[in-house]
Write a structure and sequence with these properties.
The chain is of the alpha/beta class. 38% of the residues lie in helices and 16% in strands. It folds into two domains: 131 residues, translation initiation factor eif-2b, domain 1 (Four Helix Bundle (Hemerythrin (Met), subunit A), Up-down Bundle); 208 residues, 3-Layer(aba) Sandwich (Rossmann fold), CATH 3.40.50.10470. The structure holds 5-S-methyl-1-O-phosphono-5-thio-D-ribulose (MRU).
């Protein structure tokens, strides 16, 4: 699994230090931020040095290890500390399910080995964090493989935000579909929404597509409607931050609008996401917490003020696309089709971690 090649690797763990490619600085600078404590990791997630649901989850796994790495004390206190650190990391960003998934999975693994020594438990924490990281590569590869079958030669596909290598272990979810189509030599074309306010589309997706030599064009968010009306878009693929059990899906703000547009223009709209993004406890989109981010992200750009000082600002980072507008959810286990309540049930085996009760 480790030998699978990925176009971009935004997360590296070397000698007890976690290095994150600073996504705030892309595409102009390629800088790495070292994290040596759970506090460093929390800040990196909160401030979006690292972003994208799977990448946040992978980062949190390593963060948990960094939080307990230097612990000295009894096994009982180690368990307490691990829970504290887990809760702390989980508080960094509320919407992406993968963050809580990583924390819960490691706690679960530790609970199973509760009779081992503290040093042994630390090793298990790191091993599990690495497993989450490595598994994501294979998961994304399989998402790409399944998604590539959905599009005909010459398809023109729209994507929103960045669900690429940068948002994962390196191969992406929505962009995995594009990487797989390229590998299969299927001709296609991508339109990338710029994705206000933080421009993940313009800065990150455009950077990935350009570097990978995928034929593509960057558009402003408000241009998708007229492109669809002109018959220039054949399909939409986006990522997800959390998927409820009825298929309602939270993703970057603006996704809902794209889905409604696609519906009106009878264009297939796909979500590409790993099983780690499904939330068995969320029955519908109403159960998904939506993060609100700082106002300066809307009122300012690159430190420059755009809106009048004192203007009221609203900045929800995500929206929920109702399942009715989703044509299919591309997962590592195949493409789930509506009705999602039924098709999601079929993959519950791989979602089983979600049901486990953590007892320490
Ligand atoms: O705020 P961000 O940049 O973390 O939001 C990212 C997205 O909304 C992505 O589309 C989603 O996490 C899927 S990433 C494979």
């Amino acid at each position: 699994m480790k030998n699978l090649k990925v176009p971009f690797s935004p997360i590296r763990f070397v000698g007890d230090t976690l290095y994150l490619l600073d996504q705030r600085k892309l595409p102009v600078h390629e800088k790495w931020v070292p994290c040596r404590s759970s506090r460093d990791v929390w800040k990196a997630i909160r401030n979006m040095v690292v972003r994208g649901a799977p990448a946040i989850g992978i980062t949190a796994g390593y963060g948990l290890y960094l939080g307990v790495r230097s612990f000295r004390g009894t096994r009982k206190n180690f368990m307490k500390k691990l829970f504290q650190e887990g809760r702390y990391l989980d508080s960094a960003r509320p919407t992406a399910r993968n963050l809580a998934y990583a924390v819960e999975r490691i706690l679960q693994q530790i609970a199973l080995h509760r009779d081992k020594s503290v040093e042994h438990l630390k090793k298990i924490t790191l091993t599990e964090a690495k497993a989450i990281h490595n598994e994501d590569i294979l998961i994304c590869r399989n998402i790409g493989k399944h998604g590539a079958k959905l599009f005909k030669r010459g398809s023109r596909i729209l994507t929103h935000c960045n669900a690429g290598g940068l948002a994962t272990s390196g191969y992406g979810t929505a962009l995995a579909v594009f990487y797989a189509m390229k590998e299969k030599k299927i001709p296609f074309f991508v339109y990338a929404d710029e994705t206000r306010p933080l421009l993940q589309g313009a800065r990150l997706t455009a950077w990935e597509l350009f570097k990978s030599k995928i034929p593509s064009t960057l558009i402003c968010d408000n241009m998708a409607a007229s492109l669809m009306r002109a018959g220039k878009i054949d399909g939409v693929v986006v990522g997800a931050d959390r998927i409820a059990m009825n298929g309602d899906t939270a993703n970057k703000i603006g996704t809902y609008g794209v889905a409604v547009l696609a519906h009106v223009h009878k264009i297939p709209f796909y979500i590409a996401a790993p099983s780690t993004t499904f939330d068995l406890k969320a029955r519908t989109g109403k159960d998904i917490p939506i993060e609100e981010r700082p106002h300066h992200e809307v009122s300012h750009m690159h430190g420059k003020q755009l809106a009048p000082k004192g203007m009221k600002i609203f900045n929800p980072s995500f929206d929920v696309t109702p399942h009715q507008y989703i044509s299919g959810i591309i997962t590592e286990a195949g493409v789930l089709k509506p009705p999602f309540k039924r098709s999601i049930k079929k993959i519950q085996k791989i979602l089983k971690w979600n049901l486990l009760k953590i007892r320490v």
